[in-house]
Amino acid sequence: MIKPLTFSEIAWSCDVVDDPVRPQGEGPTDIILGQDRAIQAINFGLKMSDDGYNLFVLGREGTGRRATVEKILNREAAQRDVPPDWCYYSNFSALREPLAIQLEPGLGKSFEDQMSKFVYDLNDALKTSFQSNEYRTQRQVVEEEFKEKQDQIIHEMEQAASAIDLVLMRTPLGFTFAPVKNGEVLSPEAFQQLSPEAKNEITEKIKRMETELQHALRQVPGWAQEAREKVQRLNRRTATFAVDYIIGTVREKFQGVESILSFLDDLQQDILKHVELIISIPEMPTLGPQDAILDGHPFFRRYLINLIIDQGSNDSAPVVFEDEPTFERLIGTIEHRAEMGTLQTDLHLIRPGALHRANGGYLMIEARKLLTQPMAWEALKRALLSREIRIESMARALGMMTTISLEPQPIPLDTKIILIGDRMTYTLLDTYDPDFRRLFKVAVDFEDDVKVSEETSQSYADLLQEMIRSEKLPEFDRSAINRVLQFAAREADDRQKYTLQVDSVQDLLRESAFCMTERKGKSVEALDVVAAIQAKSNRLGRIPARQREAINEGLIDIDTTGQIVGQINGLSVSQIGSIVFGRPNRITARIGLGKGEVVDIEREVELGGPIHSKGVLILSSFIRSIFGIDQPLSLRASLVFEQSYGGVDGDSASVAEACALLSAIAEVPIQQKMAITGAISQAGQVQAIGGVNEKIEGFFDVCNERGLAPGQGVIIPVANKRHLVLDERVSDAVKEGKFNIYAVSSVEEAIQILTGLDAGTRGTDGCFPERTFFGKVERRLLDFEKRRKALAAEVHEDKS
Amino acid sequence: MTPQSSSGKPARRILVALNESHSSGNALEAAAKLASDLSAELCVFFVEEEDFVRAASLPVTSIVTYLGAEIEPLSTHSMARSFKVRAQSLQLRVAQTATKLQIPWNFSVCKGLVANEILQKVGASDILAMGMSTRKKLLRESDPCANALAERAPCSVLIVRQTEHSHGDVVVASKGRSEAVSLGRMLSRSLNRPLRILPLQDGRPDLENIERELQAHMADSTTRHGMVLNTVADDREAILGRLKRLSPGFLIIDKDAVVLLNLTPEEITNELGLEGLVIIENRPAEVAAA
Questions:
Q1: A170 touches B: beta carbon within 8 Å
Q2: Burial status of residue A7 (CB atoms within 10 A of its CB: 0-12, 13-18, 19 or more)
Q3: Are residues B58 and A136, on separate chains, in Cβ contact within 8 Å?
Q4: H or E element, residue A687
Q5: Of A642, A653, A644, whose CA–CA distance to A716 is shortest?
């Protein structure tokens, strides 16, 4: 007779180590538990400097992937040199294409400050020089010279006109010559009275003078050009004098930095080229701070630089985690501002992205977030493939915006990318994106759990202590730590493993500390941990509570006492979001004369999933393998999950269904105080199933609410013994002998527990003994066969 | 102290003879500011030069264009149209200036010889404002002849020159005429430049009045700059010497001092590099009354 499991067999204890708890402060820090493979992969990936050796960290949420990677990255980053500063400055020959400059860490800020000061000084020096008396005098000389030349020709023309009784007038339409008499312009009437000869003479004189004036005036544009050139030369001389000193000051500060010196040469040429424009700018703001200059006349902005990356305050390579990896935040963006109804931009509106900030270091991104951002993944791949960061707007990349924008010089990219994602994402990318394998050659696969051992228990306890310290939680005593370890095993669904999804464990620590505070305790004890687990279960327990209520009120039929033929308590587990709970289900079997079919009603109405159907087919095969070798099975059986309306899947009820069917055939009742779970093989072995703890607890809760009756319990596969990490309410009941858990390896063992009858083995005559369970099945099947043959004979006679 | 016209009454009417020259435009701006400060009316007029109309009506005249020096036919019709366009443009400019300063204004067009027309209209005005070209007066342009008008006008005259740079102080050279000092104060405040006083010795300068004006000026919180009272000047050389040292941008000077200097307004302006010159009409009896 199979015996129920003892308390010691089901109770979880950290028995591999006596004292996993060390006093606070003695344990190691920076613990990375059970991730040797992942750590090796990270170290490999970080050391490989070749193209494409970027990392994809895969694993379940909450396994501490990011924290672990970050710890290692920070350690590595501290060993590396600080990368350079990066600035953008004007490309004076193509302002739409700002140039990038790479400077020693910290030099960028100094350069930026110097250029702000330079613009201030430039404005001041130019203003002073161009307002000086020397400049004004020289300019006036040039201008007066030009004016005098103009005046001179007009004067000469006037004199010449006067000598022949004409006057030169400047009318709104132009110059005109008119005849005069006694200082007055001749009236039309007086002119008419002149003789034709006199009129002709005046006409000739006027024509001659007009031609002379015309020739004279046509020299004016040449003089004007000459004067302008003189003024330009004067301006250049004056500006050179004013600018040389202040540019020299900047040059001195950056001696040896060729890129800056080259920029300053170009800048000086640009100032000289635009000196007329600069001095015509009426007012500059009160200069000093860069912002004031930026808000001032836009022309001066071209001489300032945009320091996009300042590494001056860093002492290691950057480790950046981009939480919002949008296209713009990844590769940077070019902002615009609205001015007079148009969108304007310049190099100062270039904003760096995460790739810029992480250049020379490491960039971590969550794969799911990256892939859900439009064009972000493509942008990242493009940057990695071309090994440069090219800033462009998304709208422009899509061809949706035609506003004039900038095309900043791309910056070389030297960043190790670390994508963090789940296994599904990794698999999908690996399968469908041909670039992925080229760019992310290092898979860092994080374990979900770790085997329980003396060493790991100690490390896990140390990890808990580290969490408690970092969270500044109150002290946890030994019992509390042990109870949390039990929780970690339960979360792993395996008494021989600890989960590495530490998020839920961390939550339990916090909630236990809260329960302790509520209790007004001094340190967190096991009872606080239990209270926290129960409180959480209670918070999420509305649905399972409603299910139990329906069972107790008879809305859902579940018998927990008595014996019934063809009816058995199966066990199922449901998951709704984060709520996982088990419950019993009534499974019934009915038979009749037939041709050996087993009808799965769930499948017939399309409520049964494929795995469930597979289970039913397997149990049919099992029954045929025992009872249908020598003769056909002359029955038709049907199986159903009673009151199941939402679909059934999985094969964990196939042992229960086999027992119910055999009970119906044998007409041997099944004990309703028992529930059973397990998957059947064709040979009748009972195989492991999932959610064993929840299933046991689900049936226990139903029985417990009705009042535990002697002999109640659950049958589970032997293979699931290792998964038993039961709640105290169940283990205590087992301890007190009020609830039983049987572990079976075959259907025969289950039948013995369920019916009290031995299943039986075939005798020398090839038949099962009559008083055994299988004997009864066999007799009944023979009866069916005889009856079927008789019926067949009658039909044959009728036809004859 | 209330600024007064040369007639001793509060200024009511500032007359501006306007054409399209820069100096004339500067005169309009300066006159408008004064009108705003004095709560006076701005009366602007444009003269359609009679000689131009006459020349246009002759069958033998043509136009040599300013741009391109092309010879084109000239007619009375085209001349009349050019006057009309010019008048409209100037009226718009006056309207914008006056509206900005919220002063009453009017604009009129008349035909005739410029100097004559100005002298006819100036009788009813308190101040005459006009521009003066920096060019040598080689041409018979539509600009009024500033020298002649300054001598013949029966009121104070504001002459504004076209300059590229404006930086000199406002200097009042007067025997103590209230109108001179208060105009100086006005200009000092409007142009935001320091005010300096050069008392003139002709008999006995009215220093008491100057002191009063100075105190008012100093007490006026809207005047940003301080003020310097220079020593008294008594003869031509002393006045000219002091004025040169002061390098005024705007000079307000008594008309009899102009006579004493024996210089035309144009010569004073060129000699001192002035932006503007205000000649205060002599009214000895009213000075005494003020």
A1: yes
A2: middle
A3: no
A4: strand A686-687
A5: A653
Question: Do the chains contact at B52 and A218, CB–CB below 8 Å?
Answer: no
Give the gyration radius of chain B's Cα atoms: 20
Question: Is A652 part of the annotated catalytic residue set?
Answer: yes
- For residue B56, is pLDDT > 70? yes
Collect all residues of chain B within an 8 Å Cβ-Cβ radius of residue A154. 138-139
Cβ–Cβ below 8 Å for B51 and A147? no
- CB < 8 Å to A167, chain B: 140
Q: Which two tokens mark A222?
A: 């040449």
Query: Residue ranges of the alpha helices (H) in B102-141?
Result: 114-122
At residue B274 the predicted structure's pLDDT band, cuts being 50, 70 and 90, is confident
Q: Copy the structure tokens of residue B280.
A: 């205060």
Beta bridge partners of B127: B14, B156
Q: What phi and psi values does residue B43 have, to the nearest 5 degrees? A: -110, 115
Here the tokens at position A3 are 């015996």
Chain A CB within 8 Å of residue B288 CB: no
Is there a catalytic annotation at residue A695? yes
How does DSSP assign A448-503, residue by residue? SEEE--HHHHHHHHHHHHHHHHHTTPPPB-HHHHHHHHHHHHHHTT-TTEEE--HH
> A423 near A59, Cβ under 8 Å?
yes
**Average pLDDT over every residue of A363-372:** 95
* Chain mean pLDDT for chain A: 88
Query: Is B58 in CB contact (< 8 Å) with chain A?
Result: yes
Q: Is A625 left (phi over 0), alpha (psi -120 to 50) or beta?
A: alpha
Going by C-beta distance under 8 Å and a sequence separation of 6 or more, which residues neighbour residue B59? A188, A191
Q: Which residues pair with B15 in a beta bridge?
A: B43, B128
Structure tokens at A236: 């250049």
Whole-structure pTM value: 0.66
CB B251 within 8 A of CB B268: yes
Distance from CA of B52 to the nearest CA of A (A): 6
Q: Are A352 and A311 in contact (CB under 8 A)?
A: no
B136 contacts in chain A (CB < 8 Å): 151, 155
d(CA A493, CA A489) in angstroms, rounded, equals: 6
From the candidates B20, B139, B164, which should be mutated to test the interface with A, based on the most A CB atoms within 10 A? B139
Asked whether A672 and A630 are in contact (CB, 8 A), the reply is no
ipTM given for this complex: 0.74
Q: Which of B58, B64, B83 lies closest to A172 in CB terms?
A: B83
Ramachandran angles phi, psi of A21, nearest 5°: -100, 125
Pairs of residues, one from chain A and one from chain B, whose beta carbons lie less than 8 Å apart: 105
- Residues A519-559 pLDDT 10s: 999 999 999 999 999 999 889 889 899 989 999 998 999 99
Tens digits of per-residue pLDDT, B108-159?
888 887 777 787 777 778 888 888 764 444 334 434 466 777 777 788 888 8
The answer to whether B141 touches B80, Cβ cutoff 8 Å, is no
Cβ separation A206–B61 shorter than 8 A: yes
Contact yes or no for B64 and A210 at CB 8 A = yes
pLDDT at A178: 92
Q: CB under 8 Å to A449, separation ≥6 — which residues? A: A34, A492, A494, A497, A498, A499, A500
- pLDDT band (50, 70, 90) for residue B37: confident
Whether B55 sits inside 8 A of A187 (CB atoms) is no
Catalytic pick from A116, A620, A638, A652?
A: A652
Lowest mean pLDDT among A38-47, A500-509, B208-217: B208-217
Please answer whether residues A332 and A350 qualify as being in contact, where contact means their C-beta atoms are separated by less than 8 angstroms: yes
Specify burial of residue A602 (Cβ count, 10 A radius: 0-12, 13-18, 19+). Answer: buried
